[in-house]
Design brief:
single chain, mainly beta
Length: about 130
């Protein structure tokens, strides 16, 4: 059974940093493109970043470009999202998801992903 488990969320002050982890099990994570998404209260889920399985190409939403970095450690079946210079508008539940359909490029479209984790809360507040 495919599972994705997010961790690393919490409360941080504006300008601070957090590193989210997405641990996968039940499948070879290196076969899947992994994406990070977020959903704030009252808003739709939106794509944040993704990393493809074969070429490890990456993509970032404009709102996080230059502040967030996605990476993967296939030996540990884990994908990371390093978040720096956090802003109050980054507050949301963050989800990771797996896409079995693309291997060389990735998309942050919600509809492209087949499997989802349960989410981890990130709150940016002073």
């Amino acid at each position: 059974q495919l599972q994705l488990v997010e961790s690393g969320g919490g409360l941080v002050q504006p300008g601070g940093s957090l590193r989210l982890s997405c641990a996968t099990s039940g499948f070879r994570s290196d076969y899947y493109t992994i994406g990070w998404f977020r959903q704030a209260p009252g808003k739709e889920r939106e794509g944040v970043s993704c990393i493809s399985s074969v070429s490890r190409s990456t993509y970032y939403a404009d709102s996080v470009k230059g502040r967030f970095t996605i990476s993967r450690d296939n030996a540990k079946n884990t994908v990371y999202l390093q978040m720096n210079s956090l802003k109050p508008e980054d507050t949301a539940v963050y989800y990771c998801a797996a896409d079995s359909g693309s291997r060389y490029v990735c998309s942050i479209s919600v509809s492209a992903y087949d499997y989802w984790g349960q989410g981890t809360q990130v709150t940016v507040s002073s």
